[in-house]
Design brief:
With 392 residues, this protein is α+β, with helices and mostly antiparallel strands. It folds into 2 domains: 259 residues, subunit c (vma5p) of the yeast v-atpase, domain 2 (Up-down Bundle), CATH 1.20.1460; 81 residues, Alpha-Beta Plaits (2-Layer Sandwich), CATH 3.30.70. The protein contains 9 helices and 10 strands.
Length: 392
């Protein structure tokens, strides 16, 4: 289960009491959730007007940064060719606080449950607005970089796939460069030309019987089987140049396909070199790209969880007032008991906001736009760590 509920409730005599009450209600007797304190430092409160405006801005920023986190995760899956175990291994957060020289990457659940504010990246002496702007700039930068890197790598991958496709597939369409050899052709003759014909396996007998008579001027006994796949064979045949059109027409009538192919050593060499170059480039770019994705996934994810912390802080001050006195708590619900957990939390905190008593996210009350967000008497934000849309 990778869903977390980040909630806050006012401190009673002490914040510890608020925490103890939650623990008794949700874990001691009924195993509804696994809980952790969520540590938010003493941030600068600022004015009420600023907090109200910031509350809306942070909601939008939360959505944007979450989308960046998901994009980086999904692209990591695309680059690793959807190999699930490898993707999960690389979707980690840097748990080395305040940028120790050796980055210690830890799994996302561990990062969230042991959350520590990153003072170096987001100095708490700055205003809340400044901190949110730092995060916004950072996420926008990652988003733009991802677009540029993905575009370059996808082009390379696409070009390589096109070339690979040309070198695979049926004899009717595939490149013949790696199949034929110089000695298969009559070259540099003013009068003669070697043609390549695709013949279905069931038609080999017919071909041998008829090819010399498909048109005039076919060189007798000049056919040779050069290559075959599951369905067809590639035959060479030599004829006089002036008979080309007539030969093609008659071959088509007999369900033999003449491939338009000119033996050109330079072109074939260039194609092979291009394939090698693209393949080498892709390998060269792969390692640095995965490293970039890993580091920037971590950066974006950490930024996203800091936004959640900011939102809890701002919303708690707006709801519970000053001085700042609330306990932020991270609940990992037991999947089977989510409904029950909601009920227990409601009973615990309904005194905080009587208007919340009538509101349930599953109810559709005219005039109340609740389809977009759930409202509870306590501050609540969901964190869903399931970031990949795998097409299983």
């Amino acid at each position: 289960m990778t869903e977390f509920w980040l909630i806050s409730a006012p401190g009673e005599k002490t914040c510890q009491q608020t925490w103890d009450k939650l623990m008794v209600a949700t874990t001691r007797t009924n195993n509804l959730s696994v809980n952790n304190k969520f540590n938010i430092p003493d941030l600068k409160v600022g004015t009420l007007d600023v907090l109200v405006g910031l509350s809306d801005e942070l909601a939008k920023l939360d959505t944007f940064v979450e989308s960046v986190v998901k994009k980086v995760a999904q692209y990591m899956a695309d680059v690793l060719e959807d190999s699930r175990d490898k993707v999960q291994e690389n979707l980690l957060a840097n748990g080395g606080n305040n940028h120790q020289t050796f980055a210690l990457f830890i799994d996302l659940v561990t990062y969230i449950t042991r959350f520590q504010w990153d003072m170096a990246k987001y100095p708490i002496k700055q205003s809340l607005k400044n901190i949110s702007e730092i995060i916004s700039k950072q996420a926008t930068q990652i988003d733009n970089d991802l677009k540029a890197r993905a575009s370059a790598y996808n082009n390379l991958k696409g070009n390589l796939q096109n070339l690979e496709r040309k070198n695979a597939g049926s004899l009717l369409t595939r490149s013949l460069a790696d199949i034929v050899k110089k000695e298969d052709f009559v070259l540099d003759s003013e009068y003669l030309i070697t043609m390549l014909v695709v013949v279905p396996k069931t038609g080999y007998g017919d071909w041998q019987k008829t090819y010399e008579t498909l048109s005039e001027m076919v060189v007798p006994r000049s056919t040779k089987l050069l290559f075959e796949d599951n369905d067809s064979g590639l035959f060479s045949v030599t004829l006089f140049r002036k008979a080309i059109d007539d030969f093609k027409h008659k071959a088509r009538e007999n369900k033999f396909t003449v491939r338009d192919f000119q033996y050109n050593e330079e072109e074939m060499k260039a194609d092979k070199e291009e394939m090698t170059r693209l393949s080498t480039d892709k390998k060269k770019q792969f390692g640095p790209l995965v490293r970039w994705l890993k580091v920037n996934f971590s950066e974006a994810f950490i930024a996203w969880i800091h936004i959640k912390a900011l939102r809890v802080f701002v919303e708690s001050v707006l709801r519970y007032g000053l001085p700042v006195n609330f306990q932020a708590m991270l609940l990992q619900p037991n999947k089977k008991n989510m409904k029950k957990l909601r009920e227990v939390l409601y009973d615990l905190y309904k005194h905080l906001d009587s208007s919340a008593a009538i509101i349930d996210a599953s109810m559709d009350i005219p005039g109340l736009n609740l389809s977009q967000q759930e409202y509870y008497p306590y501050v609540y934000y969901k964190i869903d760590c399931n970031l990949l849309d795998f097409k299983v």
